[in-house]
Known about the structure:
Layout: H1 2-19, E1 23-26, H2 38-46, E2 49-52, H3 55-64, E3 72-75, H4 81-93, E4 98-101, H5 114-122, E5 127-130, H6 135-143, E6 150-154, H7 160-171, E7 176-181, H8 186-197, E8 202-207, E9 215-220, H9 221-228, E10 251-255, H10 260-282
Parallel strand pairs: 1-4, 1-5, 2-3, 2-4, 6-7
Antiparallel strand pairs: 7-10, 8-9, 8-10
Helix pairs in contact: 4-5, 7-8, 8-9
Amino acid sequence: xxxxxxxxxxxxxxxxxxxxxxxxxxxxxxxxxxxxxxxxxxxxxxxxxxxxxxxxxxxxxxxxxxxxxxxxxxxxxxxxxxxxxxxxxxxxxxxxxxxxxxxxxxxxxxxxxxxxxxxxxxxxxxxxxxxxxxxxxxxxxxxxxxxxxxxxxxxxxxxxxxxxxxxxxxxxxxxxxxxxxxxxxxxxxxxxxxxxxxxxxxxxxxxxxxxxxxxxxxxxxxxxxxxxxxxxxxxxxxxxxxxxxxxxxxxxxxxxxxxxxxxxxxxxxxxxxxxxxxxxxxxxxxx
Length: 287
């Protein structure tokens, strides 16, 4: 009887999956096409609808993987993400399989995708993924900074006040911090992190990970801020064109968390000061 119930439940699940499509998030290479997951070519060839951040890049990737695309291609980038999510859920309800790809890495990680996943899950539609490359974990792995605990912060806020508050909060965090950043804003961000986290905090700038011109530059925030400053004078540590004015491509920034011993000392100091304040309040006439 139990076995029959399990078989019936499995049959119901298979019927449900035939009645609706499956939403698949597919990781694509962050650099070289040969780093593509083995399943990616199969998924690209068999999908009914492919939602791509940039359809031109998708076509180039498909050509590199020797895949003939038969799916309907849909642009799926930040500005249309919310509207397209509803349209794609309707495609899934109609029984069509939808594949989501971004320009690089895993969809929904600082890229379009999470709104569609949330909508599909709410509609009871199966969501799965083709795992693969991610600039976040790749940069973290090669940084040489602690990897046991980390936070992914995406792109820092653009508004100065919000950036200052975010960096001030993170300055006391013991976890390693991973950011995405535009090469145009790299110098400014390193300078701000230097002020919030301190000159001596270790950091790593990863540029064009896995690509031909990959560059991994390690140092303190002070050293990296000086290196990235396009107005800094030439010196042996500054190869020609090495400042941020010459930086191109994708940037992933990894910053060490505050030393745990320092963090514990700060907590003890704060607790001690709180006790002193409480005693002063209990004796208002005693200065």
